[in-house]
Predict the structure.
Amino acid sequence: MLSFFMQENNIFIIVLVFAYFFNEKSLLSRYETIYSQRFLSIIYSYMHNTGKKESEAGKTQFEMHKTLILIKPDTIARGIVGDILSRIEKKSLKIVAMKFIDMTEELCREHYAHIAHQPFFPKIVSYMTDGPVLALVIEGIDSVRQVRNLCGATDPQFAAPGTIRGDHSCTIDYNLIHSSDSIASADIEIARFFITEEVFQYTKNVYVN
Ligand code: CMP
């Protein structure tokens, strides 16, 4: 019995079980230097989200995944791309692919097929084909939600100050940016705009994603 408690790994597990039950984050943080941040994020996720699943995708909220961003023609024309990239980088999300694309009407119809029946659809087509679009693949823990948080509400009229749309736009007609709304659609949207070789793997910083 005593030898069980003397083993370092077992002590670690006991501490984690204690921390989990008493929601003791400082205790977990102390172990940050010893064990990887990735492992701790799983522990944190249990503390905060036990039983919770991300809506459609059915995956835990702290999973590392990729998401797609389209920076729309108005953002490029207004010269505020740098601010958007800076927000992504400051959030410790990783840009793993980026390129200009010519958003043809055909591509637009495919990408927005789910809203093709809407009366405003022709407006979307002329908006999205009005100039170059900058497409990015972003990687990080919970990146779909994190990027959508950065973007703010789809309609900039309701987007909170401090978000990209909240700070730079006040009309749905020019909402600056598109981001995938689930892990499942991110996978489909990334494959729509990028081939595998265009999505890079690299180490950014050991302390972030
Ligand atoms: P996005 O996030 O790219 O996803 C769908 C897009 O449709 C949305 O951003 C807007 O650009 C556009 N959109 C949604 N609702 C409206 C609307 N009521 N009028 C005009 N455009 C819209």
Summary: The first strand starts at residue 64 and ends at 71. The first helix runs from residue 2 to 6. The radius of gyration is 21 Å. The chain has eleven helices and four strands.
